[in-house]
Amino acid sequence: MNASADSTIHIVDDDDSVRRALVSLFEEVGLRAVTFASAESFLETVREDSRGCVLLDVRMPGMSGLQVQQVLRERGVMMPTIILTAHADVPMAVSAMSAGAAAFVEKPFHPQSLLDCIHDCLETDAQRASVETQRRRAARLLQGLSGRELEVLHELVAGKPSKTIATVLGISEKTVDVHRSNLMRKTEVRSVAELMRVWYLVYPM
Amino acid sequence: MPATPPLIGTVRVNMRQVLVRAVAVGLLACVLVGVPFLVYIRGEVARAHERTVARERHSVGIAASIINKTVQSIVSDLRYLSGQNELRELLADDTPSLRAWLAQEYAAFLTQKPRYDQVRWIGADGWEKVRVRREGDRIVTFGADHLQNVQERYYFNETMRLAAGQIYVSALELNVDQGRVEEPHKPTLRVALPLFHPDGRRAGILLVNYLATPLLDELRTLIRGKDSNLWLLNSDGYWLLSTEREDEWAFMFPEKQDRSLAVRDPDGWQRLSREHSGHFKTGNSLLTFRRVYPLLHDDSPTPAASGRSTPALADDYYWTVATQLPQTLLEAEISGIARNLPLIYAAFALVAFAVATRLAYHTFRTRAVGTFVQHVLDNVPALVAYVDETEHYRYNNRQYEPMTGLPANALAGQHVSVVLGEAGYQTALPNIRAVLAGKPVSFEARISFVRCGQRDVAVAYVPDTATDGKVRGYIAVMNDITPLKAAERREHERQCEAAHVTRLASVSELASQIAHEVNQPVTAIITYCAAAQHNVHADSPANTRLRGLITAISDEAQRVSTIIRQLRDFVRKGEIAFVPVDLNEIVGNSLQLVAGEAAAHEVEIVTDLATGPLGVKADPVLLSLAVFNLVRNAVEALAGTAVGPRRVTVATRRIRDTVEARVTDTGPGLPPEVAARLFESFVTTKSQGLGMGLSITRTICEAHGGRVQHSPAPGGGCTFTLAIPGGDS
What value of ipTM does the predicted structure carry? Predict the structure, then answer.
């Protein structure tokens, strides 16, 4: 289990007994869970960098699970979402999945299946979190570059040799090389390949 | 006359037809009455004529009788004179003294008999021997020197030829004195008889002059005050007596010779001279006549030996008495009878024509009204008929044709069942009885018609009540409302469908609700079970057993969830998983589910199940739910009751191909207003509850082609019967 310690299962369900049962189960298997009785209280608490996954009941007073999912996506909360429903139908499942739900589980669920599903989600979230960390670092590194360095970097990522870059930018080939060594130093990379990885972390293709 | 109803007032009568008919009928009536009328008048006229003739004949008869009597008395007097002793003696011995003696006798005679003018004895030589004559008031006896010879006179000669006993009567004529008609006129009749000496020699004649004026005057009195004229005619057709005085005695005057009936009326005269009596119309008058033979009536005793009278002379000597009644007078008499009759007849004719006109108008008007009403009735878009009190048609309009194939009025005389059919007749019968009792009725029926098959009809019966309250029949108005009814049925079906959809929708909605609500605790249970499993490791038999129990709990929870899902799926899609099940088994399962609740409310559940399995194809989960609902309702109904037995009896049985579950409680029963709406959603007697149970149960039953029914139980509670067809026996 490679879920990091700060991974938390966010349980959003208006049914008290369901919340408590789920918490009991998760504690038994060593998972951390927080519960929310309503969509609104959950949305108040959740942050973009919250880690773990969301168990979201569809039918609740106030906002429905699907609306919550929509809001989460808009706010950039990237935790995988498992939609729970007491009565599923196909259109609901389709809209949930198309809104980016990781899974669609009908109550009453088989506990082991749910647990498997949650583990998958936590895995996914952990990976996503790691990528995100790297992307943030890369972005921070790129922010440290000067304007000319960024221009050169842009041309480099496009795969152009120094000579061409010099012609495009209207500067000498030597100056291009100076900028290149500076930006590689600033971005803490040793090769152009590494440099390109950093670039694409920030500006995915 | 009652006021004409406005509708009938629009009817126009052809007045030309009316007049033609009125004239024809009027004429006929006039002829029919006129013929006997005419016969009667003719009879009256004939009778009047007869009366007139009889009266005239009577007058004539009286006149004839007077004449006869007069002549007879003259003859009688003459015979008396001829038988006088003085005359006898004189005839035996003619002496002047005897003559004087006789003259005295005759003078006395004339004095006594003023009708006689002169008495003479004329000798056989023609010389007058004794002559006594009336001159004014005096009686004059002529002396010997004044006596004349009358040998040449016709009366002397005529009489001298007679035998003894025979009488001579001269024609009645005016006296002529010395060759001239004596004035004033002296109508004179000379009557004579021959005289004989005792030795049989002729002794001359005895002659009296009779003055006829009194006779004629007496005859004139006969017709005094009468309209007719009295005539006395001699045998030559000259008037001896007439109303026209100028015509009298015309034969005496040469210048008046043509004043005779023979000249004036030859035909009449012909008849008069041919017949002895009679009457006839001549010219402008009625002539009634009779011949008078005065000498034939001489029945006085005679001493003469040689026969009594002179037949030849008596037969030839006659007068004719006649009355002449002018035609105008005759007609006046007749018209007196018939005067008023034409007036009466004219009045009758007037009345006849008036009545005929009225009658014709009425007839044509009635006909026109009839035609009009028939036209209206035929075109009313409804079947209209008149039925009499024996339930037979009297009239039917044209609208019957498309329904029955029979043209207008072809049903007359037919019984109503012919059109309505036996079944339709039975339907209509109570209404027919009601309308024949005088009560208007209307009803709807479905009737099988010959031409167009089953039709829905709206029928109205209106009684035809006479003024005395008796119902003579009724007017039947029938409307084909088949399209209307079909639309109504469609609408009803649509509403039922809509109600069903609504009910299903509400059930579906509720099922979702239930699914959601039930799934939450079920989810919690299952989740708890999973959590528990993690805490119980299978390291000891006890733990292994515990894990088994936990798994069982979890499975049952899953089953609940499955039931819920099936129910929800069913109400959402209307699909059922039909599998062969045993109703007894289903009931058993359901009773298990409700056993806890029953125990809690201290309700005894008794089963009376059919022996052997009750196989039927059904969805076991849904059927369990249906039975469960019924049993739980029964238990809950008893929960509130304070006293009495708390028992729910569940019985099953098979009736032919239907299996049945019957749930009876000993509760208080249902109030009627609830019973009426029992199977609707959200109707409940429970303080807490959605009222969905029976609705769902019914929906399930109907989905299985079955039904659920409520009836009051004998003990006061309720019985719910659930029946599902299609069982295998």
Answer: 0.72
DSSP A136-186: HHHHHHHHTS-HHHHHHHHHHHTT--HHHHHHHHTS-HHHHHHHHHHHHHH
What is the distance between the alpha carbons of residues B613 and B626, in angstroms, rounded to a whole number?
19
Helix (H/G/I), strand (E/B), else coil: B367: helix
- Residue B537 touches partner A, C-beta closer than 8 Å: no
Contact B81, B343 (CB under 8 A): no
| pLDDT of the residue at A11 | 93
Nearest CB to B515; choose among A15, A29, A87: A87
What sign for the dihedral angle of Cα A160, A161, A164, A170?
Answer: positive
Between chain A and chain B, the number of residue pairs with CB atoms below 8 A apart is: 69
Q: Does B527 touch chain A (CB under 8 A)?
A: yes
Question: B516 and A28: CB-CB below 8 Å?
Answer: no
The answer to whether B652 and B644 are in contact (CB under 8 A) is: no
Tell me the C-alpha distance between A12 and A35, whole Å: 6
Identify whether the C-beta of residue A133 lies closer than 8 Å to the C-beta of residue A147: no
For the stretch B463-509, pLDDT in tens is 998 888 888 999 999 888 888 888 888 888 777 665 665 566 666 66
Per-residue pLDDT at B298: 54
Q: Which amino acid is at A54?
A: V
In angstroms, the CA B296 to CA B317 distance is: 9
Strands B579-582 and B471-480: unpaired
**Inter-chain touch A108–B535, beta carbons under 8 Å:** no
Residue B382: phi and psi, rounded to 5, are -155, 160
